[in-house]
TrEMBL record:
A Pfam family matched in the record: PGM_PMM_II
Similarity remark: Belongs to the phosphohexose mutase family.
Protein name as annotated: Phosphomannomutase
Example GO BP: carbohydrate metabolic process
Region (Disordered): 1-26
Signal sequence region: none
Biased composition (Basic and acidic residues): 9-26
Highest taxon above the source species: Bacteria
Organism for this UniProt entry: Micromonospora coxensis
GO MF annotations in UniProt: magnesium ion binding; phosphopentomutase activity
Cofactor(s) in the UniProt record: Mg(2+)
Sequence ranges assigned to domain Alpha-D-phosphohexomutase C-terminal in this UniProt record: 464-523
Domain Alpha-D-phosphohexomutase alpha/beta/alpha: 54-168, 218-317, 329-442
Length: 554
């Protein structure tokens, strides 16, 4: 009992010190309310002060709440001060460009970042309104900025927000110009953040220069130029931004490219930080695109497209056997890569270790360079080390980069345009995206992928599962011996298992409290019978899913 009282007193003292340094009256009131409810609020207070949000290669991401273990104005002020100090220490010159989405707190966090930059004597350029993440990534390159900050939590739950950092060419190099940071920059920025003193001593300047709509128009123009100006345009698209910031930019890009403007799900068209019509604002989640499919049905759309809330991801649904089905990220990735190859786009094609092996097979058969990276676009855009120019990269989590010279990150707007270009060309021939997938399967075999994804409240569940698979790796999967087992520790918390016809990649999510196992089986197609091969692959993947769940103790 004495120990508990001591712990509570320590928490109370830490909270009071935080209150003395917190520049936001609203979050101070929030934290005082927690203190007023002690001792009953002890567990909540302990969680808020369990540690500080760590600035990693994805920047910051966490729940909106007072305290060091949350996203709030104090945490953002400290992060901005550390970033600006690190840029100065590295000799980085030029403006900091800042974008933000429509989540709770995003604009205030963006404006505070601009104030910290100008207070340190660095020009700050603020995007004109809530805009997609790809527009910020484009702006870093287009404006020659030293770095960029995007305030967004992407497809996380409504109560979250985040803070992503991009570097310009001066500090990011040719491959990292306009790309997300990678080590050692993340560690350097984190160290600089820890060195920031009392927030009252951080000088604040004006809120920077608000950029005009010409920047957005420039992005739209470049996005529209990604596709063939003379290709077919007869295509009816249903679209949803999932209450995010993608609608205005995507519809403008479609119009500029000469496509009919997509029909937009009415009650998801405008940005809304509450995301009222979806339980989880991620197009991969069950039920998230139900309204989109309904609109596609009602309007007779040829294809249905969804962006996630910050529009850096792109989901595609197609009509098959009388109903709509969402294509897997690996399927869209293969379709886009194949389309670019057929257009004669030569150069490096890249994906990640958790994506399908189909792209590797396609590149090998067609004599094109290929590379495979760790998970995340920060790695994809640096694939191959610059030996070959990157022309396409994708990851299975609905992220695609079809024009690295335009945006050196995943871009759900240009991906949607390229899907539309492909679908319109196939439609002119009386064919569909699923027909093209069947062609690829007939040529390379059915590469069927799936996920075992487990969301947890206690991160120890993930640690225990990873320890279990390392201690007792399966000797066989689907009745075939495991021919290769890789453990990527300490560089990355990843375990890879392979047989002659299957592959499993197991890793904790980098952005959510999830354990993920990425599953793939490859089923040859005999005598052109793709449907039978798909059926066999589906049966095999279901069995593989069960085997891996058992091996992980889940």
């Amino acid at each position: 009992m004495a120990a508990e009282t001591t712990d509570l007193d320590d928490l109370r003292d830490r909270a009071r010190r935080w209150l003395d340094d917190d520049p936001d009256p609203a979050s101070r009131d929030e934290l005082r309310a927690v203190l007023d409810r002690l001792p009953g609020s002890g567990p909540e207070l302990a969680d808020r002060f369990a540690g500080s949000l760590t600035f990693g290669t994805a920047g910051l991401r966490g729940p909106l709440r007072a305290g060091p273990n949350g996203m709030n104005l104090a945490v953002v002020t400290r992060a901005a001060a550390g970033l600006v100090a690190w840029l100065a220490a590295e000799g980085g010159e030029g403006p900091l460009v800042i974008g933000y989405d429509a989540r709770h707190g995003s604009r205030a966090f963006a404006e505070r970042t601009a104030q910290v930059a100008t207070g340190a004597g660095r020009p700050a350029l603020l995007l004109p309104r809530p805009l997609p993440t790809p527009v910020l990534a484009y702006a870093v390159r287009h404006l020659g900025a030293v770095a960029g900050v995007m305030v967004t939590a992407s497809h996380n739950p409504p109560q979250d927000n985040g803070y992503k950092v991009y570097l310009g060419a001066q500090l990011g190099g040719a491959l990292g110009a306009g790309a997300q940071i990678v080590p050692p920059a993340d560690a350097g920025i984190e160290a600089a953040i820890r060195s920031v003193g009392p927030l009252a001593q951080v000088p604040l300047g004006p809120a920077g220069q608000v950029l005009g709509d010409d920047l957005v128009a420039g992005y739209v123009e470049r996005a529209a130029s990604v596709i063939d100006p003379d290709g077919p345009r007869d295509l009816k698209v249903a679209y949803t931004p999932l209450h995010g910031v993608g609608a205005a930019v995507l519809t403008a890009a479609f119009a500029r490219a000469g496509f009919p403007v997509p029909g937009v799900v009415p009650d998801q068209a405008e940005p809304d930080p509450a995301f009222p019509t979806v339980s989880f604002p991620n197009p991969e989640e069950p039920g998230a695109v139900d309204r989109l499919v309904a609109l596609a049905d009602a309007t007779g759309a040829d294809v249905a497209i969804a962006n996630d809330p910050d529009a850096d991801r792109c989901a595609v649904a197609v009509r098959a056997a009388g109903s709509w089905r969402m294509l897997r990220g690996d399927e869209v990735g293969a379709l886009l890569a194949d389309h670019l190859m057929r257009r004669g786009v030569s150069g490096l094609y890249a994906t990640t270790i958790v994506s399908s092996s189909l792209l590797r097979a396609m590149c090998a058969a067609r004599g094109l360079p290929y590379d495979e990276t760790l998970t995340g676009f920060k790695w994809i855009v640096r694939a191959g080390g610059g030996a070959q120019p990157l022309v396409f990269g994708y990851e299975e989590a609905l992220g695609y980069c079809v024009a690295p010279e335009h945006v050196r990150d995943k871009d759900g707007i240009t991906a949607a345009l390229t899907v539309a270009e492909l679908a319109a060309g196939l439609k002119e021939q009386g064919r569909t995206l699923t027909d093209r997938l069947d062609e690829l399967a007939a040529e390379f075999g059915v590469h069927h992928t799936d996920q075992l994804s487990v969301r947890v409240d206690d991160l120890r569940v993930i640690a225990d599962a990873m320890a279990r698979i390392r201690a007792a790796r399966p000797g066989a999967l689907l009745g075939q011996p495991v021919t290769e087992a890789q453990d990527l520790l300490p560089a990355s918390d990843v375990v890879i298992l392979r047989t002659a016809a299957a592959r499993v990649v197991i890793r904790p999510s980098g952005t959510e409290p999830k354990l993920k196992a990425y599953l793939e089986v490859v089923e040859p197609v005999a005598d052109g019978d793709v449907p039978s091969a798909r059926t066999r692959a589906q049966t095999a993947i279901a069995a593989l899913r069960t085997e891996i769940a058992t091996a992980l103790g889940l």
